[in-house]
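User: Let's play a game. I give you a shape written as tokens, and you guess the letters that built it. Ready? Here's round one.
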């Protein structure tokens, strides 16, 4: 099984992940062959995003992560690709984000930290002066 994390950055995958795909995607060796190297193996891609790109959302149609990875991985390298897509991960921290989406699509609220009883007192050992 292959497990990949691919958050959406500016409507696409991170450049470092794209570079990794470019290194792995070797036409004639790992991809675009009669028997791609990952053919039939399961691949799970977790691709998170701060907003929603589902049908009915204002950003619908702007998700360029799943279509690209389905083509590059699924067609090029051959694994059976499944996507896990947590959405609205920024909703708990961005007040202007619409909350009209079903709660099952929203990320869980970020718990607030309890007060730090040692705030202001550092348990660190002071560095010697030079």
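Assistant: Ready! My guess for every position:
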């Amino acid at each position: 099984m292959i497990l990949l994390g691919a958050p959406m950055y500016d409507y696409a995958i991170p450049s470092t992940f794209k570079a990794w795909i470019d290194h792995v995607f070797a036409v004639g060796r790992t991809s675009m062959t009669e028997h791609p190297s990952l053919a039939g193996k399961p691949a799970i891609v977790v691709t998170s995003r701060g907003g929603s790109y589902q049908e009915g959302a204002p950003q619908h149609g702007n998700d360029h992560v799943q279509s690209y990875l389905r083509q590059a991985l699924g067609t090029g390298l051959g694994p059976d690709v499944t996507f896990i897509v947590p959405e609205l991960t920024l909703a708990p921290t961005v007040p202007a984000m619409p909350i009209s989406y079903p709660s099952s699509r929203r990320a869980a609220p970020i718990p607030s930290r309890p007060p730090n009883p040692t705030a202001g007192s550092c348990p660190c050992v002071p560095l010697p002066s030079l």
